[in-house]
Amino acid sequence: MLQCPPAPRYTDFWVTIYGFPPSAISTILQHFAQCGTIVDKVFSPQNGNWVHLKYASRLECDKALNYNEKILGNNIMIGVTQCKDKNIIDKENMCENNTQPCKVRPLAQNAYKSAQNDSAVDNNISLPQKSSGLMNKAMDLFFGW
């Protein structure tokens, strides 16, 4: 019997970035946005020097983790680690353990709804039609298309 792998835990996609001055938060966010899609972010209170970022996939999270102990902008050494903040992890578990479905992003909502109905046919798709022009008739006669 073939079993599907377990669904990924969303807590696995959180990273914590620390060690930068509060004035460099935009530089940090811009840099780490290049690692992948940032789905959520939690900033430190009162101008702290850390931020939690949640990525959309394990691969993107791993890309961010590779910047641990690297120097950005020639003068900021940062640390990047897997998020260990219980408040962030508990926030994710509330959504996982809740009987109500989690929020679906608006752009993905239509695709999600249409995927629920297996027998739905989209009649809006225009199918290609064979042209019946003089050139096509000559090509049919000449090449047997």
TrEMBL record:
Subcellular location per the Swiss-Prot or TrEMBL entry: Nucleus, Nuclear pore complex
Record GO cellular component, one term: nuclear pore central transport channel
Major localization class: nucleus
SUPFAM superfamilies for the chain: RNA-binding domain, RBD
The keyword Lyase is assigned to this record: no
Organism: Ceratitis capitata (Mediterranean fruit fly)
BP terms from Gene Ontology: mRNA transport; NLS-bearing protein import into nucleus; nuclear pore organization
Molecular function per GO: nucleic acid binding; phospholipid binding; structural constituent of nuclear pore
Pfam families in alphabetical order: RRM_Nup35
Domain RRM Nup35-type positions: 9-90
Protein family (similarity comment): Belongs to the Nup35 family.
Protein name from the UniProt record: Nucleoporin NUP35
Keywords tagged on the record: mRNA transport, Nuclear pore complex, Nucleus, Protein transport, Translocation, Transport
